[in-house]
Automatic annotation (TrEMBL):
This is Molybdate ABC transporter, ATPase subunit. Residues 1-234 form the ABC transporter domain. It is an enzyme of class 3 (hydrolase). Keywords: ATP-binding, Cell inner membrane, Cell membrane, Hydrolase, Membrane, Molybdenum, Nucleotide-binding, Translocase, Transport. GO terms for cellular component: membrane. InterPro entries: AAA+_ATPase, ABC_transporter-like_ATP-bd, ABC_transporter-like_CS, Mo/tungstate-bd_C_term_dom, ModC_ABC_ATP-bd, Molybdenum_import_ModC, Mop_domain, P-loop_NTPase. SUPFAM superfamilies: MOP-like (SSF50331), P-loop containing nucleoside triphosphate hydrolases (SSF52540). It comes from the Bacteria. The keyword Protein biosynthesis does not apply. Residues 293-360 form the Mop domain. PROSITE patterns: ABC_TRANSPORTER_1, ABC_TRANSPORTER_2, MOP. Pfam families: ABC_tran, TOBE. GO terms for molecular function: ABC-type transporter activity; ATP binding; ATP hydrolysis activity; molybdate ion transmembrane transporter activity.
């Protein structure tokens, strides 16, 4: 199993980066934290653009090891780097920008074909255009394609969506998800947007003041009440499911999840497809008896694991659903409701889920 293994220590006067973590060789590892906590510094150290003390290995290949006096220069590390702003050559067409990336590696080492990348990122119709004529989102897709065409063994993405407006972000996210599903290249993805991390990351490294505050699967980190992602207004839980059936009459889809079924607006996915759903805390309410007369379709038996007040009127409730492996759900309710329903940890309740979003 390919694995990224890093340990960096970097002193910059009033900022010290001191981190050590491993990331799996597949999927997206989100580096998440406030501005200035050291996310970009980690990417720069992995890329060899910054020289911290420590080590950096990918799949047993050492890019840096101070103990052994090893430090590979950036151009010798098989990485693709995508920045906030697309940095394309203005005088070259999109096609030539892409070819430029490809030429950086010998043909024998090409892992991904030109056409595959072009189609994956949906940029075929732009190939002969100049970068200046593209929208921000299109330019960023070209930058990602260019990075991929260098056949990297690790893709570093530093807030690739932060310079885009909301519509362009929504436009590009499905492409990033496709990359995730299609390519077997691990990605280190820096973001300070909880929404983006929840949508894309499999694993989250949560940073604070130059250190790793927590690390774990996205499901776990998103639902930990002691961590900032759960405190956010976008707080949500991820749940894995399987498309069970489609209801043509009502245009709905039934999704089997551990311990129950969710009925959602019709999904394009074929039956038996594995999918990831996101359920916002604000869309979950709690009932102590099974509601029989509600318009809400999704009612799941669950148990209260933990509760935490988030302000004077609201609290977050962490629930676990009935079936193995008991995926967590978050519910944002009022303190008043907690007192009225006399809710407490350990109690068996029903979670009413008002809305569910498909992640991939
Ligand atoms: N070249 C530099 N010289 C000195 N200090 C720097 C340099 N680059 C960054 N810093 C400082 O190091 C700290 C970490 O910066 P870094 O860019 O890694 O944070 P970040 O989490 O990526 O922030 P952001 O989300 O704003 O990009 C900050 O306090 C920053 O001011």
């Amino acid at each position: 199993m390919i694995e990224l293994d890093v340990a960096f220590r970097l002193d910059r006067g009033n900022f010290t980066l001191d981190v050590a973590f491993t990331a799996p060789g597949l999927g997206i590892t989100g580096l998440f934290g406030r501005s200035g906590c050291g996310k970009t510094s980690i990417l720069r150290c992995v890329a060899g653009l910054e020289r911290a003390a420590g080590h950096c290995r990918l799949d047993g290949e050492t890019w840096q090891d101070d103990a052994k006096g090893i430090f590979l220069k950036t151009h010798r590390r098989p990485i693709g780097y995508v920045f906030q702003e697309a940095s394309l050559f203005a005088h070259l067409s999109v096609r030539d920008n892409l070819k430029y990336g490809m030429r950086r590696v010998p043909a024998s080492e090409h892992q991904i074909a030109f056409d595959e990348v072009v189609d994956l990122l949906g940029i075929r119709q732009h190939l002969e255009r100049a970068p200046s004529g593209l929208s921000g989102g299109e330019r960023q897709r070209v930058s990602i394609a260019r990075a991929l065409l260098t056949s990297p063994r690790l893709l570093l993405m530093d807030e690739p969506l932060s310079a885009l407006d909301h519509a362009s972000k929504q436009d590009i996210l499905p492409y990033l998800e496709r990359l995730h599903d299609t390519l077997r290249i691990p990605v280190l993805y820096v973001s300070h947007a909880p929404d983006e991390v929840a949508r894309l990351a499999d694993r989250i490294v949560l940073m604070r003041d130059g250190q790793v505050q927590a690390i774990g699967s996205a499901t776990e980190i998103l639902s930990r009440l002691d961590l900032p992602l759960a405190q956010d207004t976008e707080a949500s839980a991820l749940i894995e499911g399987r498309v069970q059936s489609h209801d043509d009459n009502y245009d709905l889809t039934r999704v089997a999840i551990p311990g129950g079924t969710l009925t959602v607006g019709r999904l394009d996915q074929a039956t038996e497809s594995r999918i990831r759903l996101r359920i916002h805390a604000r869309d979950v309410s709690i009932a102590i008896r099974k509601p029989e007369t509600s318009s809400i379709l999704n009612v799941l038996p669950a148990r209260i694991v933990e509760m935490q007040e988030i302000d004077r009127s609201h609290l977050l409730v962490k629930l676990c659903t009935a079936g193995e492996p008991h995926p967590p759900l978050l519910a944002r309710i009022t303190r008043y409701s907690r007192d009225r329903l006399k809710l407490e940890p350990g109690q068996e309740v029903f979670a009413q889920v008002k809305a569910v979003a498909l992640m991939d």
